[in-house]
């Protein structure tokens, strides 16, 4: 265990590991299983179509089976991207969700009351900066003055900032074009933009379907963590539900990692993409999840500081405020 982790984070991690024993103790005392759920009778999960593990967890129904004896119903809500999902978390429409590394920073700056719960280990190859196959651009440094499309406030927003800095450019050197994935793809195909920052499986789809070329990936520029976030009131009142949820997510991730082809075949009709496209995208993700720790929070702090310096967020943040104490 990382000795630099704050005591509160260490206690939180150990709490998950010991929750099974706690649950056994509750049952041994003869208390009803529904007491585990405390205040919650419904778990509302927000997901994106590209969130492979959650999509498959929903399709397989294993979480519902685990929570049914506790009297907890699971409801799923799909969102186009992380910023929209976090808005729903902020207004109380969902309890739990999965997003990239930048959306939590923008959400915290906007006053959203959430906590970091867990994260996927780095997957920098799962996002990239694409150009048309016949584009004359050969390096990120050549993007000066060019139109670069990406979903504002999403993880690729940070990718663009980091790639520009690595290439010796500033954010003001490009013309940002804020577009959701579907709109960006359309603009990309008709030549209305010079480059497009996007994540998988949309990245793999553009590569295979229209011959898009990766000008750069996230490798060497960003970690590209994916985060599981919880509404603070839900997390504080329902630790056992969250423990079960993270157990099932971890189990699903292990299954995907060991069964890439089968997972891709199951995702194809859900995501509306060819199996080989999805398989390419799946291979770029790690599917390994860990409880939140001090090291990953420090990386989030660096993103928050960079966005503040660029005036992309209105105030300086302390990322550790978004942790359940």
Instruction: Give the helix level as a range of percent.
Output: 40-55%
How many DSSP-defined strands? 11
Shape: globular
Low-confidence stretches: 1-38
Mean model confidence by pLDDT:
88
Structural class: alpha/beta
* Content of β-strand: 15-25%
Taken in chain order, the helices and strands follow as HHEHHEHEHEEEHEHEHEEHHHHEH
Strand order of the largest sheet: 2-1-3-10-4-11
Euclidean distance between termini CA atoms: 18 Å
User: Number of helix segments?
Assistant: 14
- What value does the Rg take, in angstroms? 20 Å
Tell me what you see in this structure:
- By secondary structure, this protein is an alpha/beta fold.
- The chain contains 14 helices and 11 strands.
- The strands form 2 sheets. The protein has a 6-stranded mixed beta sheet, sandwiched between helices. Strands 7-6-8-5-9 form a 5-stranded mixed beta sheet, with helices on both faces.
- β6, α7 (155-166) and β7 form a beta-alpha-beta unit.
- α3 crosses α11.
- It is globular.
- Mean pLDDT is 88; it is low at 1-38.
Key phrases:
325 residues, alpha/beta, six-stranded mixed β-sheet, five-stranded mixed β-sheet, globular, disordered N terminus
